[in-house]
Structures are given as C-alpha cells and as structure tokens.
Automatic annotation (TrEMBL):
This is PEP-CTERM sorting domain-containing protein. Residues 395-417 form the Ice-binding protein C-terminal domain. InterPro entries: 6-blade_b-propeller_TolB-like (IPR011042), Glc/Sorbosone_DH (IPR012938), Ice-binding_C (IPR013424), Quinoprot_gluc/sorb_DH_b-prop (IPR011041). Residues 1-26 form the signal peptide. Keywords: Signal. It comes from the Bacteria. The lineage of its organism: Bacteria, Pseudomonadati, Pseudomonadota, Betaproteobacteria, Burkholderiales.
Length: 424
C-alpha cells in the first residue's frame, strides 16, 4: 500500500497522535466549493463516507452531488411560500447496512401543498444511491399548521447510537408573539422538539406509521401529546447532535430582541421548557412575557440584534485534525456572520465566541451570503449552505496545513534526537 503523502492527512494524523505543538494548531481556515447553481438550498448532509452529498432545496428537490456532478435525487410537491417548503432531511442510521430495517431509508419533512400540513415521510434510495424511488414513499406522520406561513422549523435527526428514535423540531406555527401560545401548550405539537420511534407503529391508520416511546417525558400526562420531548421553542432553525457525546444543540430564532442556543445533555430524559413565549432568550418577551416559571431553563447562549437577526444552528465539529475540533459552529442568516464557541455544553457569551466571518468570506469558494444551514459529513466534515445557491466545505487554509505539518515534523525530529541522546 502506498504511503499517504497528503499534507492534510499527515497533519490530521499528527494532531490525533498529539504530535503537534499547541502553537501549530492556530491555523486559518479556507473554503472549498462543493456545489453551486442551487435554488434556495436549506440543508446538506453526507451519510456515507465517500458517498454523495445531499442538498435540500426549499422548492422540493433533493440534489445529489458526487464527483463534482449534481443530479436530482428526489422531487416532492410542496408549498414553498414564506418559510414553508422542503425543510428537513434525515438518513436512517442503518442506511448503508443491508441487514437493517433502515437500509436505504431516509426521511423528509415538508409542507403539504394541499393544506399546508407539516408532513414527515420516508423513502428508499435506489441501488445506485444517486436517486430515490418515489413509489417507496410511506407517510410517517403529519400535523396541522397554523394559518401563518412562517415558523415551520423542519430539522430532523437521530441521536448517535440510537437507530430507533427520530427527533423532529417544530416551530410555533407563526405570527407575532405565538398568538395561540402553542409553544407552551403540551396538547399540540407546535413549538416543540418531538421524539418518535420510526421502527414501531402504535396506530391503526395506514397513514400513521410510528410509535410513541414509552420513556418520553409527557407519556401518560393528561391532555399532553406523548410525542413531545421538549417544549417552549419559537422557530428552532437547525438543531444537531454532537456525534461524540450525544448532546443536542438547538438554535432558536428570536422575535425582536434575542437569538438563542439551547442545550440538552446526552443523559437527559427530556422535558425541558425553553421558555417561549414567556421568555425570548434570557429576557421576558416584550409585551407578553414575564419571569422564568417553574421548569423553564435559560439558553446556553444568547445574542442581541447587534450581532444578527436570525440564528442558524450548526455543529460541534468532530472532524479529525480540524482546528475547529470541539467547537460548536453557528451563524446568522441575516448578518451572514459565523462564529464558534466551546462545545463542552457550558454556558457561553458572545465575548467568548470566535468570529470566523472575514476569514471564511475570503476563502477560495468566494464570499458567503445568507447562512441557511450548516451540514455535517460522515467523517464529521463541516459544510456551509449559502441560501444564494452554493454549498462549501470548511477546510484548513493550505499554508496552515503546511505550517502544521512542518511543526509536527520538527517536533518528531526533536523527539528522535533527544531519544537518541538518552540512549547514549
């Protein structure tokens, strides 16, 4: 087998072995163009190492990007006015395992064009992995939406190590100040984080195909929906799981004063109430809010409108060798800014955040516009989805890779010299 002489791979190996001096990790970042010419892209993910990158377009199409070629993977009829559309995509953890019930299965979250319901449905990919079989569609669940066209959220995901439970983020349904108080009403699914078992079925209807986990926090509570895992969300625009720890990060878009990031520890049984509409971030919601009520929790981080006006949640980076390793990366749709904070789950402030915007805008893939989403590949690689039509991958700046490699080689040479001297 030929030795790997790729400088990035060598630097990553050196980092993983602890061979890089601390100063050498202060590298800069670059961007690499993965796809362009997209129409209102909202999300990107790559479930199989070396496989295609899948990009969700708001108008109802999922694109597969492989070897620099972009093709249609699946098209769904949706209503896309306002904040409606094709909003979420999650690949079954058993997607690449022929022995799994989830083999080639993936889930989509979209707005029904006939009645604007939020619909979760599953499909199966064809053998090539570059197209899906429309006839494989199975509706999993649907829930009615408010008459407004905003606050539909749409993220879905699986907790690492758990192939049964699909988590689904829902917005409060829209309108100013959550007029029906949906986020605090445990009798409706809006303004929540849901958790369902996609490998079970508690319902006789052929159009409802999931089970309610018996350990969900509201199971057995009078008047409450058992699907609910957490409450008090306004418009959670992108959540994620830390692939190493299993902790959940939820970015929730504010109304007029605060943007926030919420956190659920991996060991939590759920039941968190993140406060909306009583609270906007860490303050009483102007005109309708008040103090923290029993059971409500403050966010892990908030920022005022001086930083941006619509938070976009990201990921705790776990790509080996990345200078962002262990950092939670997030952005803002309106301001286009991108930051990182410590990903250990401790409370943070923007004073502790690192602003990567200028560096990433100067990258090889060109300036970024509205940050619609981030994406994570099978190896933990980080993608940025620009609503203007492109997806880029975050990579080390080439000179920095060489700097890291040079530092690693210098340190290894020093260790050899000292070892040789000690032997004599």
């Amino acid at each position: 087998m030929k030795p790997n002489r790729n400088p990035l791979a060598l630097a990553a190996l050196a980092l993983s072995c602890g061979a890089l001096p601390l100063a050498a990790t202060a590298a800069t970042l670059d961007t690499q163009l993965v796809a362009s010419g997209l129409t209102q892209p909202l999300y990107a993910t790559s479930p199989v190492a070396g496989g295609p990158l899948f990009v969700v377009e708001k108008g109802g199409t999922i694109k597969a990007v492989s070897g620099g070629v972009t093709s249609n993977f699946l098209s769904i009829s949706v209503t896309s006015s306002g904040e409606q559309g094709l909003l979420g995509l999650a690949f079954d953890p058993g997607y690449a395992d022929p022995s799994s019930a989830g083999y080639r299965r993936f889930f989509v979250n979209y707005s029904d064009p006939s009645n604007r319901d939020s619909v979760i449905a599953s499909y199966r990919a064809n053998a090539s992995g570059l197209s899906a079989d429309p006839a494989s569609r199975q509706e999993v669940m649907r829930f009615a939406q408010a008459s407004f066209s905003n606050h539909k959220a749409g993220w879905m995901g699986f907790k690492p190590g758990d192939g049964n439970h699909l988590y689904i983020a829902t917005g409060d349904g829209g309108g100013s100040n959550d007029p029906s108080n949906n986020a605090q009403n445990t009798g409706v699914l809006l303004g929540k984080m849901l958790r369902i078992n996609i490998n079970g079925d508690d319902f006789a209807s052929p159009s409802i195909n999931y089970a309610i986990p018996g350990d969900n926090p509201f199971v057995g509570v009078a008047g409450a929906r058992g699907e609910i895992f957490a409450t008090g969300l306004r418009n959670p625009w992108r959540a994620s799981f830390d692939r190493l720890t299993g902790a959940m990060w939820i970015a929730d878009v504010g109304q007029s004063a605060r943007e926030e990031i919420n956190f659920i520890d991996a060991s939590s049984a759920g039941g968190q109430n993140f406060g909306w509409r009583v609270r906007e971030g860490d303050i009483a919601t102007p005109t309708v809010g008040g103090p923290l009520q029993p059971g409500m929790v403050d966010p892990l981080l908030v920022y005022p409108r001086t930083f941006g006006q619509s938070i976009t949640g990201g990921y705790v980076v776990r790509e080996a060798g990345s200078v962002l390793y262990g950092q939670y990366v997030f952005g803002d749709f309106v301001s286009g800014r991108i930051w990182s904070i410590n990903g250990n789950g401790s409370p943070q402030t923007m004073a502790n955040a690192t602003d990567w915007t200028a560096m990433l805008d100067a990258g090889a893939a060109g300036a970024l516009g509205n940050i619609a989403s981030f994406g994570e590949g099978a190896g933990g690689e980080l993608y940025i989805v620009d609503y203007g039509g492109k997806v880029v991958r975050v990579v080390p700046e080439p000179a920095s890779v060489l700097m890291m490699l040079s530092g690693a080689l210098a340190l290894l040479a020093w260790r050899r010299r000292t070892s040789s001297a000690a032997a004599h």
